[in-house]
Design brief:
There is one protein chain. By secondary structure, the chain is of the alpha/beta class. Helices cover 32% and strands 15% of the residues. The protein has 13 helices and 13 strands. It has an 8-stranded mixed beta sheet with strand order 8-7-6-9-10-11-12-13, sandwiched between helices. A 5-stranded parallel beta sheet has the order 2-1-3-4-5. α9 links the parallel β9 (204-207) and β10. α5 (100-115) packs across α7. It starts with a strand and ends in a 17-residue tail after the last helix.
């Protein structure tokens, strides 16, 4: 069995520990970074590939007939053609839950940058002012108290749920629009509503869902027109959820007060305002940029890893994956690997034992180990 790591680090070299993967698959080759044209040659006849931002599409899969499993060291799968993977019989696994707390924190960093402008007031004082007659020069905004505001959440996975907890701690009313309302949500103290109701009632709209064919362009001109004038939009999910031209127009008209933008492929969090004299999406400028949640990737990933390694050690094995959320392709696999703590772990174990080692219906007594990713 061969494995290839196409991207060995996220923010800086050494921020991820691959020793578990290499213990499981000694024949593992690791690359620091991989350009698109290098992907297929580097995968070659490998069975397993691990990647982060590398694209995996039909063209690549056609050149890698031995590939059986792709592990993405992230939650989002925008860079993977999942239908092509299905057609080629390639199992896919992501890492849900690793960034729950850091992304929820990022959401409120953006909101507080809008409502308090602490960094801007700091610059004002550093420049020798107590007050200024030209607040626009510093990007100062009216102070906004969050108590009593209505905080709307679209998407109620682990990040959306943690964001709701923080919003409630600020004294806000929380509305949620989500595909599935689970029984365990009853005690959360939030109100579940449809999308139109969410748009009409919220003072702040925060997006926490993946980019799918159903959610791309979710926040468009029609949706923005339904929101309260002067509402705030926060997007720490995926850029494709938002029609940037429509957001620029809404900011220009005053329908939106401000937008906080820190999506996973955006390169940095920012409060977006209008550039005077510009139009459309080009009119959006960053004011008071904040740390991107990916800056905490290594920390939260390793923290989650330690938790699952400790849990797995109690069972005499190391689990793959992080978090207890559903991973990809649950309906297609039919795995019966209930001894492992996460769906990600079960899928990888099933692949290793039944597909590679040809051990059908593997049971606990046959389980050797699975490496931590």
């Amino acid at each position: 069995m061969k494995a290839v790591i196409l991207e060995s680090y996220v923010m800086e070299e050494g921020d991820l520990d691959w020793s578990g993967v290499k213990a499981l698959v000694p024949d593992t080759v690791s690359y620091v970074r991989t350009a698109y044209e290098e992907i297929a040659p580097r995968i070659g006849d490998a069975d397993i590939v691990l990647l982060n931002k590398c694209r995996m599409d039909e063209k690549i899969l056609q050149q890698c007939p031995n590939l059986k499993w792709v592990g993405i060291i992230a939650t989002g799968t925008d860079n993977l053609d999942l239908e092509a993977c299905r057609r080629h019989g390639v199992a896919v696994a992501n890492v849900p839950g690793y960034s729950t707390y850091s992304v929820a924190q990022m959401t409120f960093s953006l909101l507080l940058a809008i409502c308090q402008c602490a960094d801007r007031y700091h610059r004002l004082v550093q420049d020798g002012h107590w007050r200024t007659e030209e607040p626009a020069a510093y990007g100062l905004l009216p102070q906004v108290e969050l108590l009593g505001k209505t905080f709307g959440i679209y998407g109620y996975g682990s990040i959306g749920r943690q964001t709701a907890r923080i919003a409630k701690a600020f004294g806000m009313e929380v509305l949620v629009c989500t595909r599935t309302v689970r029984p365990e949500y009853t005690a959360d103290g939030v109100e579940f509503v449809d999308y139109d109701t969410l748009l009409r009632r919220c003072d702040i709209l925060s997006l926490h869902c993946p980019a799918t064919p159903q959610t791309r362009g979710l926040v468009n001109a029609e949706a923005l027109a339904k929101m309260k004038p002067g509402a705030i939009l926060l997007n720490t999910a995926r850029g494709a959820l938002v029609d940037e031209e429509a957001v620029a127009a809404a900011l220009h008209s005053g329908q939106l007060a401000l937008a906080g933008h820190g999506h996973a492929h955006g390169g940095g969090g920012a409060v977006l305002q209008l550039q005077p004299g510009a139009h459309g999406a080009a009119a959006l400028v960053q004011r008071g940029g904040n740390a991107h949640p990916a800056g905490l990737f290594g920390q939260c990933h390793q923290r989650g890893g330690g938790k699952h390694v400790q849990r797995a050690a109690a069972h005499g094995l190391c689990c793959i994956g992080c978090g207890d959320e559903h991973a990809l392709f649950p309906a297609d696999t039919g795995f019966q690997c209930h001894i492992l703590s996460s769906p990600f772990a079960r899928r990888m174990a099933h692949f290793i034992f039944e597909h590679l080692y040809k051990i059908p219906h593997f049971a606990p007594e046959r389980t050797l180990f699975c490496a931590f990713l």
